[in-house]
């Protein structure tokens, strides 16, 4: 109002001249407000202050996600790909609440049962923060704790405990927090509970795939993967390679046998012999070809995984390849990220459809085929028999309504 008088607006309205461009803009703004008041219907409780609030409190209008309201989540745990799924769920939860997700802490170690032994690692030590926001702009948004204006304006939201917390209750709670205005008064909603993002999802596969596409490894880890792939292919005449994610560890075999009994199937576990036979029987597999065995470090001393391969299939694992020193420099999470990238880039990938690691590799390879229909990224599941006792062709069903198949595995894979 002070500006109005400084511009001699009263004189102007009486017929005087207006020379200031700034004053013209002010007058135009006032005119718009007056017209809006006259012609728009009055809503109960509507005040002009609400317009100011929306304008000031939504700096990210246009990008789709508010950058002044935040969601905070606990440290994300378990294996690399379970952590990626949990991270995506946290992102999609923040999106549902129209909030920016505060950059979470991941877990470098795998002591998932001993919470006190977990080794935290910042998200931006594994994935590129700015690249994530650039690729996911308008869909989901990551923020830093330095973005908070008042760290005390926090609302704690208990999200239940593991499988006891049902999907229905989870969704009802999220919907309530997304529509009740009193919750919106808090700058930050802090989710509390034991591993709240390991169990439930309410979003289609394509939403998860979008988040995964925005996850780009930091240069250091990507360059280590480059070194491993270079060793696999060779330097003189680069060879194609098949990456096989071998799940034959003792703890896996115990788990999968129990799972087979519970699901009344025999298509989860696979022995070394069966895996080698299925890979050998891949249709149109050209030889010679390098076979990279992505296996747990504790199996590197087991020479049997390198034996029994058909002539023309040249098997390598980290030690024989001479890259184990690369992996030993890093904690578990980084080792797994390197192996994931090596499997992702393979000419052919063969994995287990009940493995989260294998499932996410296939999802990304499926995405690559969708983006570039002229390039093939064939993938197979060795635990499900296909043609001529080879492995079953495997692509991710991107139209699935949730991530159930990828989170917990299935032998009903798309081909």
Describe, in plain words, how this protein is organized in 3D:
The protein is α/β, with parallel strands linked by helices. 41% of the residues lie in helices and 14% in strands. It contains 17 helices and 13 strands. The longest helix is centred in the first third of the chain and has 19 residues, at 21-39.
Summarize the structure.
The protein is of the alpha/beta class and 415 residues long.
Order of helices and strands: HHHHEHEEEHEEHHEHHEHHEEHHHEHEEH
Q: What would you say the CATH architecture of the largest domain is?
A: 3-Layer(aba) Sandwich
Please give the share of residues in helix: 40-55%
How many structural domains in the coordinates?
Answer: 3
Q: Main beta sheet: strand number and arrangement?
A: 6 strands, mixed
- Count of DSSP strands: 13
Individual helix count: 17
Mean pLDDT, all residues: 82
Shape: globular
Strand arrangement within the widest β-sheet reads 10-9-8-11-12-13
User: Would you give the CATH topology of the largest domain?
Assistant: Rossmann fold
Radius of gyration: 27 Å
Unreliable stretches covering 5 or more consecutive residues: 1-18, 34-63
Question: Structural class given helices, strands, pairing?
Answer: alpha/beta
Taken as a percent bin, the fraction of beta residues is 5-15%
CATH top level class name of the largest domain: Alpha Beta
């Amino acid at each position: 109002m002070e500006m109005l008088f400084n511009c001699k607006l009263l004189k102007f309205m009486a017929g005087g001249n207006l020379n200031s461009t700034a004053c013209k803009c002010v007058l135009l703004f006032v005119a718009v407000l007056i017209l809006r008041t006259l012609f728009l219907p009055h809503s109960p409780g509507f005040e002009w202050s609400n317009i100011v609030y929306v304008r000031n409190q939504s700096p990210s209008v246009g990008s789709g996600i508010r950058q002044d309201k935040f969601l905070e989540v606990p440290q994300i745990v378990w294996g690399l790909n379970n952590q990626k799924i949990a991270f995506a769920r946290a992102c999609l939860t923040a999106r549902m609440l129209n909030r920016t997700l505060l950059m979470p802490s991941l877990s470098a170690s795998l002591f998932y049962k001993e919470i006190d032994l977990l080794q935290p690692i910042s998200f931006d030590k594994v994935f590129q923060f700015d690249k994530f926001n650039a690729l996911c702009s308008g869909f989901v948004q990551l923020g830093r704790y330095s973005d908070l204006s008042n760290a005390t304006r926090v609302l704690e939201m208990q999200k239940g405990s593991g499988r006891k917390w049902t999907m229905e209750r989870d969704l009802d709670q999220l919907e309530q927090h997304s529509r009740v205005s009193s919750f919106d008064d808090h700058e930050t909603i802090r989710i509390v509970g034991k591993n709240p993002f390991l169990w439930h999802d309410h979003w289609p596969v394509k939403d998860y795939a979008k988040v995964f596409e925005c996850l780009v490894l930091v240069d250091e880890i990507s360059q280590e993967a480059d070194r491993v792939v270079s060793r696999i292919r060779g330097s003189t005449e680069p060879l194609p390679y098949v990456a096989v994610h071998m799940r034959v560890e003792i703890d896996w075999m115990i788990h999968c046998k129990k799972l087979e009994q519970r699901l009344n199937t025999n298509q989860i576990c696979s022995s070394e012999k069966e895996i080698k036979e299925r890979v050998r029987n891949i249709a149109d597999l050209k030889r010679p070809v390098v076979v990279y065995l992505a296996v747990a470090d504790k199996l590197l001393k087991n020479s049997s995984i390198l034996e029994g391969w058909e002539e023309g299939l040249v098997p390598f694992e980290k030690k024989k390849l001479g890259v184990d020193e690369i992996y030993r420099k890093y904690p578990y999470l980084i080792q797994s990220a390197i192996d994931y990238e090596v499997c992702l880039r393979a000419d052919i990938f063969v994995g287990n459809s009940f493995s989260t690691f294998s499932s996410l590799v296939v999802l990304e390879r499926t995405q690559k085929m969708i983006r570039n229909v002229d390039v093939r990224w064939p993938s197979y599941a060795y635990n499900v028999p296909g043609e001529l006792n080879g492995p079953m062709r495997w692509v991710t069903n991107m139209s699935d309504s949730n991530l159930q198949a990828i989170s917990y595995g299935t032998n009903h894979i798309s081909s």
